[in-house]
């Protein structure tokens, strides 16, 4: 049975709640970004033995009160970039300023403003959840009373209250990740740097994390740098996104403007139940064929015509599913040839 949605120019999922959209920008650290909370200029870093830099000539400026994403495939250089931003790696070239302080010259001053969630968990495992989060708040300078209150609020916000007495090491991978997020959120740091905060989380937990991020941005003006390779997450929560491919910036703008840059292309996907009775080239020259799943980006008229032909012809009997959808950030990655990085 054909079961998917024909969208006719509207989104397949309900669009995220509208956010104030910052003006478009290249992300460059010019005079307009004097107030930026995190400014990187020409960052380049290579690792020994690698044929190309892991991060090359990356320039960006994160504005106060925005959720700034770094999106790219595995190995694109996202974690290396955030480790450079945090001063945990030294760049071969380029500079980083966090809250006005050069991270190389004033690492401690810069770090005092930032809560960082690394891609891999730090050493919270021996503590119970309650102690892990409260201790993090205390280490960030909160009084015992405030640390306790914040710990209780953050655990409730992320649905972790019932696990407060459990040792972190005994939790599931997703629960441990949520505790890491809770530790990043306590103590109200003005800049959160979150490296793949929702990896391994189910949809409810991911939503809780996205809501917690938006609450801090909207309520406290918290700025967030969020690393992800999940385009749905990027479309849901990011104000602007820097797209990385093999260490280089491919684009940096709002998700909406990046999609507009595709020039009105829509995505047509066909899933076949049996061997398709037509050739992919009957649809278009550049159909991506993955087994019985075909995918192609076309101008809307061409996509409609191709779909009409399939639905009206004998091929319909072999069709299992189809999607005709407006472009997503996935299409932005594909349009830039980033798929080849995988
Ligand atoms: N410490 C290191 N030593 C050598 N090479 C490294 C090191 N860290 C990262 N790399 C290499 O740098 C490149 C970028 O890695 P990085 O971890 O930054 O990518 P990523 O986009 O975060 O990937 P993922 O989404 O898989 O986490 C990769 O080719 C990786 O192998």
UniProtKB/TrEMBL annotation:
Pfam families: ABC_tran (PF00005). Residues 38-271 form the ABC transporter domain. GO terms for molecular function: ATP binding; ATP hydrolysis activity. GO terms for biological process: response to antibiotic. InterPro entries: AAA+_ATPase (IPR003593), ABC_transporter-like_ATP-bd (IPR003439), ABC_transporter-like_CS (IPR017871), ABC_transporter_ATP-binding (IPR050763), P-loop_NTPase (IPR027417). It is found in: Cell membrane. GO terms for cellular component: plasma membrane. Keywords: Antibiotic resistance, ATP-binding, Nucleotide-binding, Transport. Its main location: membrane. SUPFAM superfamilies: P-loop containing nucleoside triphosphate hydrolases. Residues 13-26 have a biased composition (Pro residues). Residues 11-33 are annotated as: Disordered. It is a peripheral membrane protein. PANTHER family: ABC TRANSPORTER ATP-BINDING PROTEIN, DOXORUBICIN RESISTANCE ATP-BINDING PROTEIN DRRA. This is ABC transporter ATP-binding protein. It comes from Actinomadura spongiicola.
């Amino acid at each position: 049975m054909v079961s998917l949605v024909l969208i006719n120019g509207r989104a397949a999922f309900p669009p995220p709640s509208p956010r104030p959209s910052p003006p478009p920008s290249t992300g460059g650290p010019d005079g307009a970004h004097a107030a930026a909370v995190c400014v990187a200029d020409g960052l380049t870093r290579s690792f020994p033995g690698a044929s190309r830099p892991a991060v090359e000539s990356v320039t960006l400026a994160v504005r106060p009160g925005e959720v700034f994403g770094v999106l790219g495939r595995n190995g694109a250089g996202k974690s290396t970039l955030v480790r450079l931003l945090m001063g945990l790696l030294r760049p071969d070239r380029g500079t980083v300023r966090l809250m006005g302080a050069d991270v190389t010259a004033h690492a401690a001053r810069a770090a005092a403003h930032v809560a960082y969630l690394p891609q891999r968990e730090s050493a919270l495992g021996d503590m119970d959840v309650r102690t892990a989060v409260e201790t993090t708040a205390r280490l960030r300078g909160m009084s015992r009373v405030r640390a306790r209150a914040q710990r209780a609020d953050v655990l409730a916000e992320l649905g972790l209250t019932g696990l407060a007495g459990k040792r972190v090491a005994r939790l599931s991978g997703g629960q441990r990740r949520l505790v890491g997020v809770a530790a990043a959120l306590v103590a109200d740091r003005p800049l959160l740097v979150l490296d793949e905060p929702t990896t391994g989380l189910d949809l409810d937990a991911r939503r809780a994390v996205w809501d917690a991020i938006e609450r801090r941005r909207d309520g406290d003006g918290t700025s967030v740098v969020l690393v992800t390779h999940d385009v749905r997450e990027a479309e849901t929560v990011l104000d602007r996104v820097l797209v990385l491919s093999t260490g280089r910036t491919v684009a940096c703008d709002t998700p909406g403007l990046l999609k507009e840059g595709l020039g009105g292309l829509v995505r047509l996907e066909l899933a076949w139940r049996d061997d398709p009775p037509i050739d992919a080239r009957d649809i278009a020259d550049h159909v991506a064929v993955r087994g019985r799943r075909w995918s192609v980006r076309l101008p809307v008229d061409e996509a409609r015509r191709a779909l009409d032909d399939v639905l009206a012809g004998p091929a319909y009997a072999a069709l299992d599913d189809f999607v005709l959808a407006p472009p997503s950030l996935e299409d932005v990655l594909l349009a830039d040839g980033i798929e080849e990085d995988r």
